[in-house]
Design a protein that fits this description.
341 residues, alpha/beta, 13 helices, globular
Amino acid sequence: MKVFYYQDPQKNFGDDLNEWIWERLLPGVWDEDDSSLFAGIGTIIGPLMQPFADRKWTVFGSGVGYGPLPTGFGGKNWNIACVRGPLTAQLLRLAPETAVCDGAMLLRRLPEFAPLPEVERNGTIFMPHHSALHYGDWEAVCQRAGIEYVSPRSDSIETLERIRRAKLVIADAMHAAIVADAMRVPWVPVSVSPNTSTFKWLDWTMSLNLPYMPVNLPSSNPVEASRNFFSVAAGKHQSFAFHPGSDVVSIYSKAEERRNSESAARKFRWGLRVHKLAVSPWLRSAPRKMLLPRMEERYIDRAAAAMSAAAKGPTFLSEDRLLNAAVDNLSERLDKVRAQL
C-alpha cells in the first residue's frame, strides 16, 4: 500500500509529515504499489483523489475542504477508518463516531516526540500557511516583531522539534497548531489571508472541543494586499463568520457553490490577470518604490504590531482528557487497519 498525500514541490510541513510518520506507526507495510492507497494527514478528500478514484482506499484522519469529492467516494473500494472532525463526517454523511481527530495527533505515540517540560522550552515562533510565501514578507514581519520565523518549507522533523521546544506557537498553518497541541505547547491561531479555510480549522478544533477565534493579521506588503483584495472581490475567499449553533456545513456548501461557479471563476481569472500583468509589476517596480519609499515599511510595521499583540492575547490548548481520548481512539482504529493489512 502507498501513502497518498499532497506533495508540494517546494515542501509543506503538515503534508510532509506523511513522508515518515506512517512508516514509524505501521512499519513494513508500505511500498510504491498505488493499486491500494492510504490517505492520512491533510485536507485531501477531494479533487486530488479523482485520478485514482477506482483504486482501493483507506482514509485515516483526513479532511474535506478543497473542492468536490472523487467519483464513487465511500463505495465498496473505500475503507473509511476515521476522518479529521465532525464537519468532514457530516459533509460526507458518515456516522458521527467516524469523526475522531487529525492523524498527526498520533505523534504522541512516538516516544522521541514526547512533550517537554516548560523549563526546557523557549521562544515564540510563527509559521505561515505555505501559500502565504508566494506573496507575503512574513519573515521580515517576524524580525520586526522579535518573533522567530519558521518556514513551512523547512525539514518536517526539524520543524517539529522547533515547535516542541517553543513556549508559544503563532499559527497561520493549521498543522503548526495541531502539532503544538499534540506537544502541549500553547498556540494562537492567526489568518494572513481571506483564503484561510475556516471550515478545515473548525473541523479540527471541534474534534477537541476547542473554539476557533483567529487573529486577522494585516497584509505584510502591497502585493499581498492586492492579491487579498482580488480574492475577496472574486468571491474566492474561504473565511466566514462562525457563530455557535450555526450550520457550518451548510455555510461551507453554499460558499463552495459560489467559489466554484462560472461567474466567480471568470471574475477571479480577470482579477488575477489584472493583478499579475498590471498591479503586481507596478507594486514591485523600482519607480514605485522610489515614489513611495515608506510603503513597505508601513505594511511591515502594522503587521508586526498585530503579530506582537496576538502573542500577548489568549492562547489555546486542548484538555489533556480529550486529547488522550482522541489519541487512544486513533490508535485503536490504526490497529484495525494493521489487522486488515
